Amino acid sequence: MTFKIQPRRALYIYLKNIRHAQQLKKFGRIVYISKKMALVALYVDDDDLDEKISHIMSYKFVKKVTTSPRPDIDPDFDNVHDDIFFESYDEQESESQHYAHNSR
């Protein structure tokens, strides 16, 4: 028997009133509750995601449900170049050293 990682996704559920947040435990693991924004962050299994979202949206106390785009984002950043950032940083450093040297 081998261990297999279950693909999961975060759901961000906006509620009309935060007192209903505990009812969402049956769909997955609650990781964060914001009383100020009436928001619940919930991790659910990715296999039957659409069914769970439609079931959650059927509750009257739910305003909106958004899914996390994290699993869909490509983690490979080979095409991103930091050269531009480092060049501008080096220019700022040389200017500040030049200014400090001339102010003496």
Give me the secondary-structure topology:
Blueprint: E1 8-15, E2 29-34, E3 39-45, H1 49-57, E4 62-67, H2 83-102
Antiparallel strand pairs: 1-3, 1-4, 2-3
Shape verdict:
extended
**Rg from alpha-carbon coordinates:** 23 Å
- The residue-averaged pLDDT reads 82
Helix content: 25-40%
Q: Indicate the low-confidence ranges by residue numbers.
A: none
Order of helix and strand elements from N to C terminus: EEEHEH
Structural class comes to alpha+beta
Q: Key features?
A:
104 residues; 4 strands
Explain this structure to me?
The chain is of the alpha+beta class and 104 residues long. 28% of the residues lie in helices and 26% in strands. The chain contains 2 helices and 4 strands; from the N terminus they run βββαβα. It has helices spanning 49-57, 83-102, and strands spanning 8-15, 29-34, 39-45, 62-67. The chain has a 4-stranded antiparallel sheet with strand order 2-3-1-4, covered by helices on one side. Strand 2 and strand 3 (39-45) form a beta hairpin. It is extended, with a radius of gyration of 23 Å. The N and C termini lie far apart (72 Å).
